[in-house]
Amino acid sequence: MAMTKRTVTTGDLIDRIRNLGEIRATYVTNAVMVQEINQSRLDLYEKLLDAGSCDYFETTQNVNVVTNTASYDLPDRYHTTLGVDVLMDDGDYDTLERYSLQDRNLYSDSLSYSREDTRYRIRGDYITLYPTPSWTETSGIRHFYVATPTDLNTSLTNETIDGFWGWEDYIVMDCLVKFIGGKEEGDATQWEKERAKTESRIERMKRKRDRGNVDTVVNVDWEFRKKQRWGKSV
Predict the structure, then answer these.
(1) pLDDT score, position 128
(2) What is the pLDDT of residue 26?
(3) CB atoms within 10 A of CB 217
(4) Element (H, E) at 92
(5) Distance (Å, rounded) from C-alpha 131 to C-alpha 17?
(6) Which of 56, 151, 161, 186 has a Cα-to-Cα distance from 46 of 20 to 30 A?
(7) How far apart are CA 43 and CA 187, in angstroms?
(8) What is the value of pTM for the model shown?
(9) DSSP character at residue 163
(10) Residue pLDDT, tens place only, 18-60
(11) In the chain, how long is the greatest CA-to-CA distance?
């Protein structure tokens, strides 16, 4: 079954919530409605990430590497790192491994190390390379990461969200639970059940976008050479 991409506006979401829950504007204003939609959207976002659907939100940061500079700013709205590559001398990118605190003295001698020896670590608001680069390269590091969504505002027709598989239903049902159980003081049981159905659907359909390949492909020869360089048993 093909995936349906449904683009909806903030106004579409508000109309659905009001119509399904018979929620009058005198009880819940559009401004309050948008505030709660944003919160429910963040909840949905986290559920999709927890379900392993990071590819829906994947984006890329290219980092210009400068000699003797180890740390570089993470992008705005950074959430989670998916992977980091280094641009090699031959023009190809190779996958970097993450280094741990135990590796901090591995390159404590005075020798010079190349980009092949590079590892990375996320520290605070920075991506840090180890050992500190002795080389310079435009777009020398390619950082794959998940970005947090921007908040919707009260521009009801100009802002849209992508409702893959109709997952925007979760936002609608979650808001109905909050509003009907709050301002309108009604029985939200029906919408709680509908929200639970949507959560189950997220879990079932989380990997239907691309079933052509397995999640991980490992170059065995490259992994062997990296382990040798980092002193691991092979």
Answers:
(1) 94
(2) 87
(3) 6
(4) none
(5) 53
(6) 186
(7) 22
(8) 0.72
(9) E
(10) 999 988 888 889 999 999 999 999 898 888 888 776 777 889 9
(11) 72
